[in-house]
Amino acid sequence: MSSRITQYRGALTPEQAAEGIALARANASRLIADAELLLGAERHPSAIGLAILAIEELGKVQIIKMIVLHSEEAALKKSWREYRSHRAKNVQWIIPTLAAEGARTLIDLKPATDIDGEHTAMLDAIKQLAFYTDCLNATPRWTEPVDAIDPKFAESIIAVAKLLNRDRVTEVKELELWVELFAPFYEKPGMVEALLRFQQRMVEEGLTDTPVATMEAFFRGQPIAATSAEANERG
Questions:
Q1: At what angle do helices 118-131 and 151-164 cross, to 10 degrees?
Q2: Any bridge partners for residue 143, and if so which?
Q3: What pLDDT digit, counting tens, does each position of 148-163 carry?
Q4: Using CA atoms, how far apart are residues 155 and 9, in angstroms rounded to an integer?
Q5: On the CB side of 205, how many CA atoms lie within 13 Å of its CA?
Q6: Low-confidence residues of the chain, pLDDT below 50?
Q7: Tally of CB atoms within 10 A around 76
Q8: 143: helix, coil or strand?
């Protein structure tokens, strides 16, 4: 029996992309549930390791949405490389921290798109420490997972994974609209306008409750107008 695994690197249809996204989210939910069981048993290294794997599974969602936009071999090769890169998949784990620090616009969240950022290397290094013994520093110091992982930090990473784990299903129709309206403008002039047209169709199709005005403020770095309910609370 051959030991080689052939990894797919071609284009995806909206139906295939929707299946991949659903499987990634379901697997992330399983990993988070397992991490919480291990946390309850005070198996903190294994708990944080599984939580990081869950974050990486959730990171596949956005990458699959990029893959479905492409048909050119070079673009597909780059996207599939990111799909199988641990750091490319964990890039969004600092979003809750950025939001807690006041991030409200696309510009504010820019660090969460930097694959080469220090935060991606840090989380990948923590995952290694959670599963393996190692020898570190200029003067040799052996580490083992039980001593390397702080229980409180394990709790916080599981909390991050849960925050990133949305229950909303990505419908095939959503991906069809994504390809139809956004693909022609990806990384080209008019990209923001294309995203807003996509959001408008999403609202019209009943696939989201987020108003176009909210998304426009987010993309353009503008303050979001208060709703009437918020205004009444302030008044």
A1: 120
A2: 134
A3: 999 999 999 999 999 9
A4: 36
A5: 16
A6: 225-235
A7: 19
A8: strand
